[in-house]
Request: fold
Amino acid sequence: MNRVMSVMAIHTRDKLGLIILPWGILALSFVVNTIIAALLGGNVGIYTGGVASIYIYMLVVGALIIKETFPFAVGFSVRRIDYFLGTMALAVAVSAAYAFLLSLLSLTESNLTNNWGVGLHFFHLPYWSNSSLIGQFWTYFIVMLFCFMLGFAPASLYRRFGMLGLYAFMGAVGVVSSVLVLLATYRQWWGDIFTWLSQWSAVQFAWWLVPVTLIGALGSYVLLRRASA
Reply:
């Protein structure tokens, strides 16, 4: 446990990257959108996807964290399993903290400030926030963790097999995706697909991401076990 905590301590030394920068970017986007909404008179609802910046940032963190900390940790004789567990623990903790803050901001926006008094829908969005506070927290948390893994898993693949392995994987994903798109287009499945998808809530979609995230985590561990420092 101490070794896992040590890995978390290595990651949390970067306060700028984990706290200040992502929330600074989000705050700047919020201020800009608030000013725009105020200039428009606040009579028309303004819907913005500015909150997506923090999810994108989480993906970037997942993609870069191995490059920034893995050689250092392994160089100090940290076991790879401890590095993996410490990194996953950090990802879970950060995702939970971010999700908690986003849930509070969504509640503040929709119930306490009347969309900040200018008709701005920044944190509380249609469909995305159409659930209880607990449901919103769960959605934000899982999507945040999924975004981290979306960056972390390819980074683990790159660490194990280098750029050639990453290119081969991305090429295979591209080929399979293209075949599926062409098949759906040829068989005219798109209408049925969108109809089927429209019946699910954001919370239910978040549950779907759980096994995908777990598979990504397991694959990353297997790759990092034999990755060079």
Remarks:
- The longest helix spans residues 133-186.
